[in-house]
Design brief:
By secondary structure, the chain is mostly beta strands. It has one domain: Immunoglobulin-like (Sandwich). 13% of the residues lie in helices and 36% in strands. The protein contains two helices and twelve strands. Strands 1, 2, 3, 6, 8 and 10 form a six-stranded antiparallel β-sheet that branches. Strands 7-9-4-12 form a four-stranded antiparallel β-sheet, with no helix packed on it. A two-stranded antiparallel ribbon has the order 5-11. The termini are far apart. The relative contact order is 0.23.
Length: 182
């Protein structure tokens, strides 16, 4: 009988030891997300795009205007967004030999067309994918309700039609795009 008690005690001790060989702990992990948005030119990955040069070399360029290559921008946002466009000034700045410097207005000379739209949003009138619309120095809605994501792209092309009234020189203006979360 003593052997049975010793065997039973040994088994009980072994089972008790096995029951206490593991334990658990838990911890809550909070992800604290903030709204985030950025926009860059895909050609260089920067918020400042590469220079767009539009040379007027022939009389046909003056008669018909000159069109740029497509310029692609990428928006990354965790919320839907809108994009506006404007020129940084009412008039082009002038570098050349004519004195006094000629005044060329941006409005009526520089147009923009949305040549591709992969944002999931809509192009806002007067802008379109089929015609050039004038850029002004006031914010103009370009795209509305772009869909959130990490690779929402759109492309624009510029058309310059200064006509015959301006002397030779370099005329420059910055075009400013602003992406705003909804």
């Amino acid at each position: 009988m003593k052997k049975i008690i010793i065997i039973a005690a040994t088994l009980f001790t072994g089972l008790a030891a096995q029951a206490q060989t593991s334990t658990t702990a838990s911890q809550t992990v909070n992800l604290v997300l903030t709204n985030a948005i950025d926009m860059t030119f895909t050609a260089n990955g920067n918020a400042t795009g590469p220079l767009v040069s539009m040379p007027f070399n022939t009389t046909n360029d003056y008669a018909s205007g000159v069109t740029s290559a497509a310029q692609q921008l990428k928006v990354r946002s965790n919320k839907n967004f809108n994009v506006t466009v404007k020129s940084s000034a009412t008039n082009f700045s002038y570098t050349g030999t004519t004195t006094p410097a000629p005044t060329m207005p941006v409005s009526g000379v520089l147009g923009l067309e949305v040549s591709a739209n992969g944002t999931g949003g809509s192009i806002v009138s007067p802008f379109s994918a089929a015609a050039y619309s004038t850029i002004t120095s006031s914010n103009q809605n370009l795209l509305s309700n772009g869909t959130y994501g990490g690779n929402q792209t759109f492309s624009v092309m510029y058309q310059a039609t200064p006509g015959w009234s301006y002397p030779a020189g370099t005329y420059a203006v910055d075009v400013v795009y602003t992406a705003t979360q909804q």
